[in-house]
Amino acid sequence: MTARLTLLTGLVWSLALGELAAQEHGVRRGGAAATPADTLSAPPTLRNRSTIPGVVEVTLTAAPARLPLLPGAPTDVFAYNGRIPGPTLEVHEGDRVIIHFHNELPEPTTVHWHGLNLPADADGSPFYPVAPGGQFDYVFTIGPGTAGTYWYHPHPDGRAGYQVAKGLFGAIIIRAADDPLPASIPEKLLILSDNRFRLDGSIDLPDPNSPQGQVDMENGREGDVLFVNGQIMPTVPIRSGEVQRWRIINAAAARIFRLALPGQPVLQVGTDGGLLERPKEVGEVLLANSERVELLVRGDGPPGSRTTLQTLAYDRYVPQTRPEDWNRSRDLLSLSYSRQPPLRRVALPGALRAIPALDTTQAIARRVVVLTQGLINGKAMDMDRVDFHGRLGTTEIWEIENLVGMDHPFHLHGFHFQVLDRNGVPEPYRSWKDSINVPRHETVRIIVRFDGYAGKWMFHCHILDHEDQGMMGVLQLN
Ligand code: C2O
Ligand code: CU
Ligand code: CU
Questions:
Q1: Within 13 Å of residue 294, how many CA atoms lie on the same side as its CB?
Q2: Which residues lie closer than 8 Å to 372 by C-beta, 6 or more apart?
Q3: Distance spanning both ends of the chain, measured CA to CA
Q4: Which residues line ligand 1 (CB under 6 A)?
Q5: Closest Cα to residue 296, out of 144, 194, 192, 180?
Q6: Measured in angstroms, how far is the CA atom of residue 85 from the centroid of ligand 3?
Q7: Which residues are within 8 A (CB) of 23 and not within 5 positions of it... i.e. 6 or more apart?
Q8: pLDDT by residue, tens only, the chain of 478 residues
Q9: Burial of 55 by CB count in 10 Å (0-12 exposed, 13-18 middle, 19+ buried)?
Q10: Taking a C-beta distance cutoff of 8 angstroms, is the pair 461, 444 a contact?
Q11: Whose C-alpha lies nearest to ligand 1, atom 1?
């Protein structure tokens, strides 16, 4: 533990304490509260009803509900345990997890544990639908080295986009036995989503044959209302000098977030499958659908000031269906400095963990995955077809080629991969991923080792409308 606590010295994190204190003096006006209200509410954690150490046993119910998503009229939704986002599943590496799931929806559903390595029958893939009124026990064990931020969402054949739009999504946090980041750093969970509403407050899910329905199918359905944990523009208070650890999930069906905190240096410490090898300073972060990122946000601003977490303009579209306001940045959350004097700098580790490179010379198969509009390798998904046959315990290299004029975020179930290169340019750092954006006309090569479970595993575009239309394939492992 001590060995890996090499301190980050100097860098952007050095804090001019005297200077901040002076500024604080200047901005203080009589009467204002010392600490801005924290209006970001994290979803509650699913209650563990097991008393056996190392066992997490919870109940999750999907059911229709009426919730106030917007100020004013309540909205008819689908919700996990009556709330949006659903409660957070919080577990530790090594835990045995039992989820008693009840489907009280009027239609079949599944719960997919996005990014987890688990038995195929617990994956909640379209192969295992749960009928209306039915129930299913998802049982799996959390693997070592998988600590990180994940999420769960429905994955029924052809209906994932609809059910997520209706409100079904929630976070998973896997904690490590020894996390290299100091436990004293406060943590925030930020589940990003969007939605579109009609004037009466109902969710706008247009007829697929209407003009808007056609655009939604092409682009993936985007909403003009942006949510963080189901809230619009919440405020997160921070104190000068304080470091916060933000776990961010892109739970939107199609929107890609290009995140920035103007004026505020940020360290990226993690991706989909947990921590990086070392922190990386970033100016902005592109977070495609289903991707996760962990950031350390340091309160470098003066007491009493504020900044905004924004999503900047990002062009992922074909020109014909690009939304009119695509080039506008949007605000997500306000980061508000308290008027308290600056905190002392906390020591951050310079190294987080080792991620050994998967060995390319061990790859026994090289596969090409060609993405075109709605199709993978020229085919739409067929549940009765197996696209790729592979073997457990082997390594493969997949070359994912996007031949068309819009981005397609590619996701593989059940196994984490490493990115080798993008358009032939080697990936500058290593991380564990389960989703990767493949920008228009670009090629990404990934390497994956199939350590885990036999069975059928989905791979697909994570724009939910594309997935539902069949932009998905099946990998069978024996
Ligand atoms: Cu997040 Cu197959 O999905
Ligand atoms: Cu998945
Ligand atoms: Cu796509």
A1: 28
A2: 378, 403, 404
A3: 38
A4: 112, 114, 153, 155, 290, 411, 413, 458, 460, 462
A5: 180
A6: 24
A7: 302, 303
A8: 333 333 333 333 333 333 333 333 333 343 456 889 999 999 999 999 999 999 999 999 999 999 999 998 899 999 999 999 999 999 999 999 999 999 999 999 999 999 999 999 999 999 999 999 999 999 999 999 999 999 999 999 999 999 999 999 999 999 998 999 999 999 999 999 999 999 999 999 999 999 999 999 999 999 999 999 999 999 999 999 999 999 999 999 999 999 999 988 899 999 999 999 999 999 999 999 999 999 999 988 889 999 999 999 999 999 999 999 999 999 999 999 999 999 998 899 999 999 999 999 999 999 999 999 999 999 999 999 999 999 999 999 999 999 999 999 999 999 999 999 999 999 999 999 999 999 999 999 999 999 999 999 999 999 999 999 999 999 999 9
A9: middle
A10: no
A11: 114
Q: Which residue's CA is the closest to the ligand 1 atom numbered 3?
A: 114
Place of tokens 């457990």: 392
For residue 153, which atom of ligand 1 is closest to its CA?
1
Residue 461 Cα to ligand 3 middle (Å):
5
pTM over the 0.90 mark: yes
Ligand 1 atom with minimal separation from the 290 CA: 1
- Quick one: which ligand is closest to 404's CA? 3
CA of 462 to the centre of ligand 2 (A): 9
Element containing residue 474 per DSSP (H, E): strand 472-477
CA distance 107 to 373: 28
Residue with tokens 């239609």: 107
Ligand 3 center–CA 130 separation, angstroms: 26
- Closest ligand 1 atom to the C-alpha of 114? 1
The alpha carbon of 370 and the centre of ligand 3 are apart by a number of angstroms equal to 11
In 3D space, the residue among 115, 145, 213 whose CA is nearest the CA of residue 462 turns out to be 115
